[in-house]
Predict the structure of Zinc chelation protein SecC.
Amino acid sequence: MRICTSCSEHVAIYNDDIDKCPICGKSLESKLVDDNTESNTINVHIDFSYEECDCGNKLNYNEISCKQCGKLQEIENDSVDPKVKLRKERFKDILTLINDSDLCIKNLRRNIHNGSVNRILVEDFVAYIQIKLYELEKLTEKKLFKNISFNSDVIEKKEVENKISEIKEYIINIYKIYEELLILEAPYVWENAFTRLCNTVRNFLDVNKLIIFSIVANTLAEACENVELAQQKLDSASEEIDTLSNMLNIKALEEDFEMFKDGNLNIPVIMLMVLAGNTEHNQIDIKFNEVQFSAYRYFKDFLPNEFQYYNSLEAPILFKLASYKFMGMTSFIESKFIEKVKVVSELFEKAKDINVIKLKEFMNTYTSKYVYALEIVNDVTQDYILNFSYCKNEKMLVRNALNSYKDLSEGVYKDVSSLLIACAYIIDKKDINYEYILEWMGFPDKLEYLKNKKKLKLHKLTDGVEKILRHSAAHVDYYIDDINKMIILRNKISNRKDKEKIGEIEEIKYTYEEFYRVQLALQETIFSIMAGIDIFCANNYYDFDSFLLNVDKKVGDLSDKNLLEYTFPFYGIIDIHLEEILKDNKTILVVKGVSIERKDKELLEKCISCASPIVKKRNELDKIIIELVDDNNIKIGSVEIIFKYMKKYFEVNAEYKKYESLLSMMTTRINYEYNNDYIESVDNYGTKFISAILQWCLDLMEKLNETTNTINNKDIYANELTKIKKEFEYSINTINEFKSFVKDDRFLNHIESILNNFVNAINKKIEVKCNNSITNIYQADYLYQNAFYQVTNVFAALADNEKIGPLLNDSSNNIDNVKIKVGRNDPCPCGSGKKYKKCCLRK
């Protein structure tokens, strides 16, 4: 394969006989592509006929004159390259299939539009979309267009014929999925996900069509253009599949994820870790980085600086943007959401350019109002996640949404709109009366002002604000008709003057869907305003850092109960009650909650991380006990957490966090009581703990071997081995901490002895390298090989618990009783300096 390094690298369909890129004219380079690579790069090999001009320039088959010298071709060719004609013949059935299928899709769309075909509502949409994603992933795993050749010399071969048949079946399956999607309708809460799924399948269809069109293209330039477009759509479709998978995790909430960083809960970022996926003991930092980068990429059009800039800011901007991205993907119409964010961002930039000092003054005055708005947004978002994930009753979902509408409009929108009005005043060069805008300007006046500022596009930021819904508690009675899926609002004020405040409406009806869309439109508007403010502050951080940091500080000063109320609902645990007790001179925080749906043991394990936000705030605690009951007050079980281990996790360096995480998890006592049939397995020796420690030690041994074999510089060598030694020592300390939690600590003592020999071996290796000590070479090898031998014995015992007892009771397994072979003329391992035959061999 030959590629152009100046153009996009994935344009990889060039004929090996062509020397220059037909797009830019630069020289091509040969490149081998590994078939086993995970890349989605499209690599298609096709060839074309060409003629050579007298000047040496290669001409395409149907070129009339040489571009280099201008000479006309003497031979008049057919209109179609014979090599292309051969490919067109071989792909005739597939081209017909594409044409017929596109026609069927077009007719189906028309029939849906005119009502002759009714769309079918998918009730269990999450299960359905998971099945479709699985089908898509299986299709994409085939990688049909990876390093395949349709050159004229192989096009007639049987294996190529089989490949063409496989491509045909592949395209039929994608069309089948797409036709099925067209006649389906998703519940409105999943419209974004459904739209993404449809677009993804559409992109996959386009990818395959473009590749087919490139294979039968008349010219190389046309083929390259089609492959370029196909690659772009393939990249987009692959990214959409990842996004869809993340969106489904929000519904299931079954992933084992870390929700907190450094013991602090970032508000309003409680949703962000839903997007992080599964987190192992030693992957927390990587996952947080992934979440931040995902948010950065989502809002890239508004973020002109590099990712590292935003990631390094003291205020957690990208965490906040991750929460807005979460809502944008799951709840809002993304195109409208992004459009509103743009309006806000541009508004603030204009105000800053005109008078940055006034803008800073107003924002600093506004801090407490903004904090209040954030807290309400968090409450509403928490309720949203809870309802979205666990509420099975649509009437209850609508009632909760209706109750939150007033909080959003009166408690949030009214306050955040003050910032928009202040920016408009600055742009219009009007004097700003802080107190008037913040305290005395009425809601109707603010709303009317924004609706009239169409030049600044502020009318778009009134979407979702409806007067009658805003007054649903004070002046309007409402009735939820679950049979007809309607909300009926009636004016309960007879006084004409008071009626004028809310309009001359006696009664108004909303279908569930109509109301839900209004409620989401208001949420969309509020979140877009707050996202736009954060983006503006991030892009102008050193002018507005004091505002951001003050907001974060005030929001972070929440009580223990408030913090925990933001975390437990992720697993459907509500009605949180806290009680602090003193028992056996230990301070214990007891957290009691009710589980809505789950009653399994895994729930107890998962809710451990929910206690993380108060770790840094409560240094005096010794234990945290979590007690859960079901909605009938039947006890599910309890979790007893040793506070100091959880706390230490957040204090140690990154390379040691996995040990503290393991220690915290293994010392946590889980008492499951809901299922009488459940029998807790007994682990007298701490085998799970030992398995994890030894696995990490194997990684250290591999790193140790690599270092000793590749590094020659003494200082670097000693420094790298010292790091490895310190981690071995940390694992030994971790073992010592855990001994008091097992019934029989002999196995742990045995592991400690093995790891101490690794430490001693490393000390000897450093001495050998730095002091050229020949004697220590054999001592180091002796210690290291014995320790490695013991590790293999331990793994054998872990695979069969019945071998643990004999391993510990057999004195031959003592580290000092294991011998290695030493040559007669080698230095004696005892360190005497004599040859082995004249020293210990005689004993």
